[in-house]
Structures are given as C-alpha cells and as structure tokens.
Amino acid sequence: MLVFILNAGSSSLKYQLMNPVNKETLAVGICERIGIDGALKHEYGDDKKLKIESDLPTHKEAIELVLKTLTEGEGKVIDSIDDIEAIGHRAVHGGEEFAGSVMVSEKVINKMKELIPLAPLHNPANIMGMEICQELMPGKPNVAVFDTAFHQTMPDYAYMYALPYDQYTKNGVRKYGFHGTSHFFVSNEAAKRLDKKHNTRIIVCHLGNGSSVSAVFDGKCIDTSMGLTPVQGLMMGTRAGDIGAGAIQYMMETEGWDIKEMLDVLNKKSGIVGISGKSSDLREVLEGMEAGDERCRLAVDMIAYRIKQYVGSYAAALDGVDALCFTGGIGENAAIIREKVCAGLDYMGLNIDPVKNNKRSGEARDISTNGSAGRIFVIPTNEEYVIANDTYKIVKGIE
Asked: Is 5 exposed, middle or buried (0-12, 13-18, 19+ CB in 10 A)?
C-alpha cells in the first residue's frame, strides 16, 4: 500500500511517498517559499536529487507540482496518482477531541477549525492540505495524525495549570504537548529493546530546533514538557522554554513591548540563538564554544542542564527509569549533550559509555555501559512512518 504523507506548513510543504508494510520510501521532498518564489526539492531512487524552481502562489500549486513530479519526468517513481492508495496528514493540534488518528471528514475538519485558536500558525495549513488533497485526489481516504494525540493519556494532575478552573472549562487552557508521533515511535522502539516487557518506564528526549521530553509508563505518556503551546519546556533553537510569568511582565513594561512583540521574542529570538548570540544551529554554537566563545559555552551548558532537570523530575514521576532515549537532530548527533545530560545519573542506574556515545551511527544503538541498570538509547525517530502506518491501519480497519 502506498501512502502519500503530507506535512503542510504556512509557507512550506514536506512530503514522502511510503509503503508502511515494508517501510520502503520511494520519494521524499519539500516545497519551500510557497507564495513567494517557490522551489521543490525532490529525492528519489538511490540518493537521486532533483530541484525544480517554480511559481507556487498557493499550496494547491505546490501539491500539484509534487504529484506531477512523482508521476512524470526525471523524478518519476510511480506511473499514476492512482497508485497512491491513501493520504496521511500531519496535524499539529487535536486538543482534547482527538486521542488518536482519524479518517478525515467534514466533521473532523470543522472540529480542527474550532481548535485554530490553540494553533493559529499550524492548524489552518494542515486543514488546507487536507482539503486540497480531497479536491485533487477525490475518493481517496485521508487520515489526520495528531502531534498532541499521544499525550492525551496524561492524568489531569499532570496536564492542568494551577489557574482559575474556568480557564480550563471555558478556554481549554491546559498542557497538551507536541512531537507526539516521535515520542510514540521512540518509546515503542525502546520498549522492544528492553528485557522488561510490562510496566516499562521510559524517558524520551526529542531534541532538535524544537525540543521536548516525555515520561512514558507502559507505553502511555504520563507527562511531557511542552504545554498549551510549543514554547513551554526545554530551551530550544529560538524558543525560550520555561520562564517565570513575572519576567514576561517585567520585560513588557521595561521595553514597552505589546503581547505580539513579547511572543516574537519568546518564540523567535530566545533559546540557543538568544543566549549564544551566534546561531540557532547547535553545530555552529559548538564550534563557537570550542573556539573559546563564553556565550556559546553557556548556551551548551544551559541546554544540557535543563534536559537533565526534566530527566530527573520524570524519573521521579515514573518511580524509576528503565530507559533514557535521545532522538532528533541534536539528540542523535550531539554526543556532548548526551554526555552532559547523563553525567552523574549513575544514582538512578544510568551509566553512559563514552566510547559508544562518541561513535557516530545512523542506526538505533545502546550507549550505556554493560553494567548499567537502566539503558541509554540513541534511536533515530521516524514520524513519517507513524503517519503512514496509522493511515494504513485506519484505511484497512486494523486495530
């Protein structure tokens, strides 16, 4: 079964064509700068690459170009759009309405529209992608896979904020969490690698430009670091993460910022780029640290310290830890961050092996010492496979 996987952003569109049964990926790509000047980057076959410059005034033209590229010319991987059996969509925010992936219907789209205030940048683009695919590929099933769904198993005492209760009942103000498909995939892969098959206690650190940590007990999320929006939690590429409300008020008053300006600072000018003053890309910050830049050193230490704080608190919430997992661009590639996070965690039975940790590999691996009571894993995430597999199961009616 071939599934067309779509991740529609406000000005970009990522896609893959995958067979979830054998995990074969036929093509992967992205349309960038939609509405500006437009370009498609398409990868297929044995590391073949194709770039097409094209006017892409809207997402519709972008999806049309992707489908044409998949079926015609140099980048062709299928004979016809008819070869695509279903479309799986990344959907950012499902609120409390969606605790799992669902077949897209008018009712689902209307409910997602109601949730737009919770994800004003993402949900409109996700909905647009669904509606365009329904138009361009009529009759083919579309499935929505929500970033927030995996975290819907959190208990109320974990997801509630200590605000007036009517803010929850009237406005849905609570912790939702994101990166759910990644946390699901990695925690599931980690569980397979443990000798213990029940009551597993797994902490997943999804670390990239956006980062989050989750505590997973027996396959179910019991807590996660991101909140109502993705700005809460860890220090990230450009996001501040956890910060006291009083600091926000103080900055707004002293700088004369309105709420939009404040949110712009919290989401786009803080985190790694805000502290280092150099870049939101950790690779450049690590180069700066090695060259003696103190602000880069501070950024690296802050990243690791804040991850470590969450690991400690989630180990307490889980009453111990069987596996600590690292994934995402930083989690998979930054050995120094893993080293700093794991330093001193031997008291909870986690001992990192420095040789294994510094060995680069694109494969899932155990980087703990042989005598470590808990395991430390590096597991490359595969969110696209989760979307494709959920789509396959829903379309085929598989529980």
From this structure: buried
Q: Annotation-wise, does 207 bind a ligand? A: yes
Domain boundary assignment for the chain: 3-146, 196-378
Fold entry, domain 3-146: Nucleotidyltransferase; domain 5 (3.30.420)
Rounded CA-CA distance 351/347 in Å is 9
Q: Please, what are the averages of pLDDT over each run of 10 residues along the chain (399 residues)?
A: 95 96 96 91 95 94 97 96 97 96 97 93 94 97 98 98 97 97 98 94 97 98 96 97 97 98 96 97 97 98 98 98 98 98 96 96 95 97 97 93
Tell me what pLDDT residue 267 has: 94
Kindly name the residue from 55, 79, 82, 147 that is annotated as catalytic.
147
Structurally, what CATH architecture does the domain formed by 196-378 represent? 2-Layer Sandwich (3.30)
Residue 24, annotated as binding a ligand: no
Task: State which amino acid sits at residue 102.
Answer: V
147 is catalytic: yes
306 is in an annotated binding site: no
Known binding residue 13? Answer is: no
Q: Kindly state the tokens that stand for 361.
A: 């590999």
SS3 assignment, position 93: coil
Predicted local distance difference test score (pLDDT) of residue 399: 74
